[in-house]
Amino acid sequence: MAAGTIAKPRIAILGGGIGGLATAAFLHCQGLPATVYEQAPRLAEVGAGLVIAPNAGRQLRKLGAFEYLRERVVRLDTGWEFRRWEDGRVLSAENLQTACWDLYGEHTYTAHRADLLAAIRSRVPAGRVELGRKCVDLDTTGDTYRIRFADGRSAEADIVIGADGVHSTVRGTVFGKAPATYSNMCAFRALVPAGRAPDFARRPTQTLWIGPGHHLVHYPVSAGEYVNLVAFAPAGDYTVESWTATATDEEFLAEFAGWDRRLTGLIRAAGTPGRWALLDRAPLTRWSDGGVTLLGDAAHPMFPFFAQGAAQAIEDAAVLAGCLAGDLDDPAAALRRYEQLRIPRTTRLQAVSHGRSHVNHLPDGPEQQARDAAFAQQDPLVANEWIYGYDLDAAVARG
After folding, report:
1. Is 173 among the domain residues?
2. Could you tell me if residue 368 is inside a domain?
3. For the chain, how far is it from start to end, CA to CA, in angstroms?
4. Can you give the pTM of this predicted structure?
5. Is residue 69 part of a domain?
6. Active site residues
7. Pairing label, strands 34-37, 129-130
8. Does 67 reside within a domain?
9. What is the pLDDT of residues 181-230, one digit of tens each?
10. Which residues form the domain of 53?
11. Which among 128, 123, 112 is positioned nearest to 44, based on CA atoms?
12. Torsion of CA 395, 79, 118, 328, to 10 degrees
C-alpha cells in the first residue's frame, strides 16, 4: 500500500461474525467507516449459547449493545459450579450475584449467539454489511488491496481485517496456507426447551460436569427459554468441522453412559444434537503485514474451555479501533501496535484453554482426587482476575 497520510481509509472487514461486526461497530464509534463482507446470504448464528464474562460485558456496554441485549440474556446470579461425573457431587461452587460486579464492575451472563450477534449488528450503520460476498482472493501487490469475491465482483481497500474464522482466507494469503489440525476432541451441542429441561438445569448457573475423557456444560439462555448444552468427548475418527453437522441422541448418550442419571436425563431431553470436531492452530507470532491484519478466530482460535472465544474477538475489535483512530497517518504502525497489545494475552489464553482439557478430563485416581481437592479450595473468579479484570482502555493508552 502506498505510504502517506490517509484521512479516511477504506476499511474492509472480511467476516460478519461476532468479531467482524464488533470491529465495524467500534470503528464507527471512532468515526471510521468500514464495510463488512460476509459470505453467507444472511447473518445468523446457529443454535448455540455462550458466556458473556465481565471483560466482554464491559465492552458491550461501552459499545451501546447491551441495552439491545438486556432482555435476552440470563444473569448468572447463582453462579457456576463443578460437579463430579458419576453422582453430581459439587466439587466447587461460586455465587456470582454480587461478586462479579464488586470485583470487575460487571456481571456474568449467558446468551444465545444469535441474540449477541443481533445486538452488535444494531450498532453497525445500515448499508455497511454486504452479504453473499465470499472472498476467494486477496491481492496485496498494488498500491491498494483488491479483494475478489466468488460472484466475480471485487472491492478495493486501504486496510483489510481478516475476521473470517479458523479457515481464514486472509491468514492463508498473508502467512501461508496451512490446514488447521484436529484436536482429537469433538463437541456435541443442543438447545433444550425449558419445558423439557429438569429444574436443576434451569437455574441461572453455569454447571460443568467433569469426568474421565469427557466434560459437559449447561446453562439457560434466551431469557430462560432454553437450556444450552455443550459436551466434549474423544473424537475418534470423527473429523467433520461444521456447525450444521448432527449426531444421533444414541451417540450422544453413549459417550456419557454411566454418568449421573440427572445428566443423562437432560441429554435425552435434547433431541438431535449437533456435533463438530474441534480444530487447533498453533499461536502466531505476528498478525499484521502492512495494512492487513487478523482478528478473532482467524488470529487465535482457542478451545472453548474458558468461554473466551467471543470475548477475545470483542476485545480485539475494541483495541484495533482504538489503535487505528490514534494513528491514521500510519495505519501499518497502528496495526503493529494492535498486534503487540493483543498477541501476549490471546496466546496465554490459547495455552490455558489447551491445558484445561487435560484437567477436566482426568481419569479417576490420585491426580483426579488432587484436582477435586484443589477445586474445593480455589476461588476461580479471583484466580482469573487477569482475564476478567483486564483494563483494555488502559492497555491501549499505555501502548
Report:
1. yes
2. no
3. 24
4. 0.95
5. yes
6. 219
7. parallel
8. yes
9. 888 999 999 999 999 999 999 999 999 999 999 999 999 999 999 999 99
10. 11-75+113-180+282-359
11. 112
12. 0
List the CATH number of the domain containing 35. Answer: 3.50.50.60
Residue for grid cell 470485583: 103
Residues 6+ apart with CB under 8 A from 179: none
Contacts of 230 (CB under 8 A, 6+ apart): 48, 49, 187, 188, 189, 216, 217, 218, 304
Q: Helix/strand/coil (H, E, C) string of 258-269?
A: CCCHHHHHHHHC
- Closest listed residue to residue 185, CA positions, set 213, 158, 160, 157: 213
Asked whether 72 and 111 are in contact (CB, 8 A), the reply is yes
Number of domains in the chain: 1
Q: Which three three-digit cell numbers place residue 247?
A: 449426531
Q: What's the rounded Cα separation, in Å, for the pair 135 and 133?
A: 6
Residues 305-315: b if buried by 16+ CB within 10 A, e if exposed: bbbbbbbbbbb
Exposed / middle / buried, residue 237 (Cβ in 10 Å: 0-12, 13-18, 19+):
exposed
Comparison of pLDDT for 399 and 349, the residue scoring more: 349
Pairing relationship of beta strands 79-84 and 205-211 according to DSSP bridges: parallel
The answer to whether 233 touches 360, Cβ cutoff 8 Å, is no
